[in-house]
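Q: What would this chain look like folded?
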Amino acid sequence: MASVSFEGPVELGGIRVLGKGYAGVVVAARMRGREVALKIRRTDSPRRGMAHEASMLRAANAAGAGPRLISHSRNFIAMELVRGEPVGRWAASLRGRGSAAAFRGMARGTLEACRRLDEAGLDHGELSRITKHVIVSGAGPVIIDFEGASRRRRASNVTSAAQSLYVGSGIARDAARVCRVPPRDQIIGALREYRRDQSPAGFAGLLGALGV
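A: My prediction, written as structure tokens:
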């Protein structure tokens, strides 16, 4: 690791970082001449190391989701640095022409990534609180932070993310502000139908019901 840059939206002990989670702190760094996001295991973390999260991120990458894993050790994970805004802040900033299309594109991209994770049997575990777990970059939405992910429970990424985006949250209010959103009971009905039929046709039906 050549250098670390203390920047980002979170202040921790007087320094700026990209993020702070249950197990680690994320900072911007340079490694082999390129920018990376470096996750450092917290000294008070109950986790014994970063191997589980690295394994989950590798599995997510294989499914076409998450920032690209570069390397890891017991106390560190180096991954692709995704430049963008947390989805909650991004949605709140939408104004004017093109906002509806931008929101629908973000929602579709997020749900398609969730679908790939579901098909891989990998449950993220935190997408019901999606605000801090999706970054919207110039290339589209990226699901981050796989420290709580598991292959031992039923994967429910699509339904968790869809509820977080469209039902009873700050992001849902922004969706209603910029888009023509179906009534709440219609969305809940579509989610129930998708839980019953998780085939490709069932997923297409959910996207259609959400208008994305």
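The two ends are 41 Å apart (CA to CA).
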